């Protein structure tokens, strides 16, 4: 099986897993983050929907546009980073109150630090995805414009 097809199925499986978690999770849970002067409160369904959409986008791109992602190692690095950071974000939303005392300032700051690093990791995975897509697009265009059929007269 092509590595990009396998990555596509990994993304699809991740989206299905997050959809199932969204069905059975407590919808009163929230993701709380404090960044500079702004306090963000995001409900769990919105967090899970964002993660599902990220993985569905990955599935669509890896399944239908495999030639735009030429580097298999980069593909897997992106999939693994995105999956791990998504698991940290959703897992922290689901179980942080059980293990971290969010009432105390120290507990909230620790939880906030975890969430900020997880979001930065998720954004780095998505930037890696976009960069890989741009490089693959440029390589496809370069191959297309340098092919003998493109340069032949009509």
TrEMBL record:
Domain of life: Bacteria
The keyword Transmembrane appears for this protein: yes
InterPro entries: Cyt_c_oxase-like_su1_sf
Gene3D superfamilies: Cytochrome c oxidase-like, subunit I domain
Entry keywords, A to Z: Membrane, Transmembrane, Transmembrane helix
TM spans (from-to): 7-25, 45-65, 77-96, 116-142
Descriptive protein name: Uncharacterized protein
Provenance organism: Chitinophaga skermanii
Lineage, opening ranks: Bacteria, Pseudomonadati, Bacteroidota, Chitinophagia, Chitinophagales
